[in-house]
């Protein structure tokens, strides 16, 4: 697949990398696609369902049912994979 960026988009990508906000051009694209996917997930699942899940998670933590996360990247990847499976099954 080949993608052509506009001049403004290229400047944006370059700015992100040069400022240190992203490590590479590929990372900027990955972050943008992740953000789009998250937006789509929020629209499909609905904000109310997300809020309910957050409230349930908070209640579980208060009851001592939480787990210690030592690798945030792996945790986030796992959440995204489960969300993608959920969307694919709908």
Task: Write up what this structure looks like.
This protein has 90 residues and is mostly helical. It has one domain (7-89). It contains four helices and no strands. It has helices spanning 7-18, 25-45, 47-62, 72-89. The longest helix has 21 residues, at 25-45. The radius of gyration is 17 Å and the shape is extended. The model has no long low-confidence stretch (mean pLDDT 86).
Gist of the model:
With 90 residues, the protein is an all-alpha fold. Helices cover 74% and strands 0% of the residues.
Tell me the layout of helices and strands.
Blueprint: H1 7-18, H2 25-45, H3 47-62, H4 72-89
Keyword list:
single chain, 90 residues, mainly alpha, 4 helices
Q: Please tell me how large the radius of gyration is.
A: 17 Å
Supply the helix-strand structural class: mainly alpha
N-to-C CA distance: 27 Å
Query: What is the domain total for the residues?
Result: 1
SS elements, strand count: 0
Q: If helices are DSSP runs of H or I spanning 4 or more residues, what is the number of helices? A: 4
Mean pLDDT, all residues: 86
Largest sheet: none
